[in-house]
Design goal:
Oligomer: heterodimer
Helix content of chain B: 25-40%
Order of helices and strands of chain B: EHEHEHEHEHEHEEEEHEHEEHH
CATH class of the largest domain in chain A: Alpha Beta
Distance between the termini of chain A: 30 Å
Number of strands of chain A: 13
Order of helices and strands of chain A: HEHEHEEEEEHEEEEEHEHH
Radius of gyration of chain A: 18 Å
Number of domains of chain A: 2
Low-confidence stretches of chain A: none
CATH superfamily of the largest domain in chain B: Glutaconate Coenzyme A-transferase
Strand content of chain A: 15-25%
Helix content of chain A: 25-40%
CATH topology of the largest domain in chain B: Glutaconate Coenzyme A-transferase
Structural class of chain B: alpha/beta
Strand order of the largest sheet of chain A: 3-8-10-11-12-13
CATH topology of the largest domain in chain A: Glutaconate Coenzyme A-transferase
CATH architecture of the largest domain in chain B: 3-Layer(aba) Sandwich
Structural class of chain A: alpha/beta
CATH architecture of the largest domain in chain A: 3-Layer(aba) Sandwich
Low-confidence stretches of chain B: none
Distance between the termini of chain B: 25 Å
Chain lengths: 248, 273
């Protein structure tokens, strides 16, 4: 396995965006963000805390599930991640349902912590590997959590970027729009326009998302892969062929 | 009278129509208890997922035990979406109270304090609020200007159900670092506990265990349930049984598949017992 898998490109790109912060946490169904956070910590060294939801090894919380939200509410969480069944051009996220509500044709898992963390965590990275008009819509059918809020609503957090299987967008909070930052290797602008249901800003020359170097891939396929396998055994098995722990 | 009971009589302590709080999967899924609820034919439960639900909730919905589901989310994790939950929503056979995780935690904290409501940041502009007429938006009365904030009514479940590694014969239950189980138990009117092991010593007498122990005051009954979270994993005691979880996820996609799964994995136990 020498070629970079798309999951690896997403993990490495997210890790670069995270940079070095005090505290980054990941939520439900978030193997790519979880691996990205662990990779970022490997690079940052001591002093950076990662909380992977569902992990026993990579969490320091001793006050139950509420501690993540209390931490975030007090400004002790710098980065979080949200996926989405639908995401629109204003950064609104639908994690609940499409085709009616509450009797829905398609039910997604649910809002989880989004309707709170999106408001209080300074930088929230949106991630969705499937890049299609089904996901990236002009307007979400159900706003689980809004991308932007009126000025009277207390809010210090919100979308910082959106990473997909095709490209990376950064979110411009002033303009309330996404701006294409880079295309993944082999992806064209036309393709992204075709597959995106919302309008976005675009620079004259679009960069290519940098591929990971060999050292990073080794780290990812070794220590980081084994760490994330604790919480996401099927993901680690699929992407890196890391065997899941045996059921006792 | 001892609080130690067998699993089936513990499940019989949950009346039809009760509001029952269950923890999220990583905190110990009371799967054995949920199966016993199915066997006892529980009906019209108001299931509160703290703050979400997994296989236990999906199975109880599929078995017709649940009238209302209140949670911030429901999923089988890496095994996909909760299939009987989705089917019940499509069919309109359950009432839905969608929430966000900290709202469930905060409402239970209000319940544990005995206060009627609690404010929570975020939420404003979310469609969740539109569908929760029991949530109210007010202006922060302490702010100089406009500062909208959402108020949540306290949650006081009739029963909290938890699964722990250790309990003692007095009814003290060791919850370790999963302290949301304490909040659940404090907020609920009574708590039913299943435990991997029931020990003779007093857990509260041991200083290193006491701080991680739910005192018997809150506990109405304890039953031994070895591998009581399976096929989900439990702490460092056992890993999840991936094959069994994948089997459920696949078969529960259809009503017939689920019914056959239930017969084999839940109802057949009664004949064997």
């Amino acid at each position: 396995m020498t070629e970079t898998a798309i999951e690896e490109l997403l993990i490495v790109t997210l890790a670069r965006l995270i940079g070095r912060v005090r505290h980054v946490a990941t939520g439900a169904s978030s193997p790519i963000p979880g691996a990205a956070a662990l990779l970022a910590r490997h690079r940052a060294g001591p002093g950076m805390t990662v909380s992977v939801l569902g992990s026993r090894r990579h969490t320091f919380f001793t006050n139950g599930g509420v501690e993540l939200f209390d931490c975030a509410g007090q400004g002790r969480l710098d980065v979080f991640f949200l996926g989405g069944g639908q995401i629109d051009g204003q950064g609104n996220v639908n994690l609940n349902a499409t085709g009616g509500y509450p009797a829905s044709e398609v039910r997604f898992p649910g809002a989880f912590g989004s309707a709170y963390l999106y408001f209080v965590v300074p930088r929230v990275f949106l991630f969705r590997e499937e890049h299609s008009r089904r996901v990236f819509v002009p307007r979400v059918e159900f706003v689980s959590t809004p991308g932007v809020s009126p000025p009277e609503v207390e809010r210090r957090g919100g979308p910082a970027a959106l990473i997909t299987g095709k490209c990376l967008f950064l979110f411009d909070r002033e303009r309330r729009r996404f701006r294409l930052e880079s295309l993944h290797p082999g992806v064209t602008l036309e393709e992204v326009r075709d597959l995106t249901g919302f309008d976005f800003d675009c620079p004259e020359r679009v960069a290519t998302t940098p591929a990971p170097d060999a050292e990073t891939l080794t780290l990812l396929r070794g220590a980081v892969g084994r760490d994330i396998a604790e919480v996401y055994p099927r993901f680690a098995e699929r992407v890196w062929r890391i065997s899941p722990p045996k059921a006792a | 009278m001892s609080v130690v009971a067998d699993l089936e009589s513990l499940a019989a302590q949950v009346p039809d129509g009760a509001m029952v709080a269950f923890p999220r999967d990583p905190c110990g899924a009371p799967m054995a208890f949920a199966k016993a609820l199915v066997r006892r034919g529980a009906r019209k439960l108001h299931y509160v997922g703290v703050p979400s639900f997994g296989m236990a909730g999906d199975m109880l919905i599929g078995a017709g035990c649940v009238a209302t589901i209140e949670a911030a989310g429901g999923t089988l994790g890496e095994y996909g979406t909760a299939p009987r939950f989705a089917a019940a929503l499509r069919a309109g056979t359950i009432a839905l109270k969608d929430a966000t995780c900290p709202a469930i935690h905060a409402a239970l904290q209000a319940g544990q304090k005995g206060i009627p409501f609690i404010p929570l940041r975020g939420l404003i502009g979310s469609d969740l609020v539109k569908h929760r007429p029991d949530w109210k938006t007010i202006d922060n009365p302490f702010a100089a200007g406009k500062d909208p904030i959402v108020l949540l009514p306290a949650l006081r479940p009739d029963v909290a159900v938890i699964h722990v590694a250790l309990a003692d014969r007095h009814g003290n239950a060791w919850i370790g670092r999963e302290r949301e189980l304490l909040t659940m138990a404090h907020a609920a009117r009574r708590t039913l506990v299943t435990a991997e092991e029931i020990v003779d010593r007093d857990l509260l007498a041991d200083e290193t265990m006491a701080a991680g122990t739910l005192p018997a005051l809150y506990v109405a009954g304890v039953a031994r349930a070895e591998r009581g979270a399976a096929p989900l994993g439990f702490l460092d005691r056992y890993a999840e049984d991936g094959a069994a979880l994948a089997d459920y996820a696949r078969r529960a996609r259809t009503a017939d598949g689920f019914a056959a799964w239930l017969d084999e994995n839940v109802l057949a136990r009664r004949a064997a017992a």
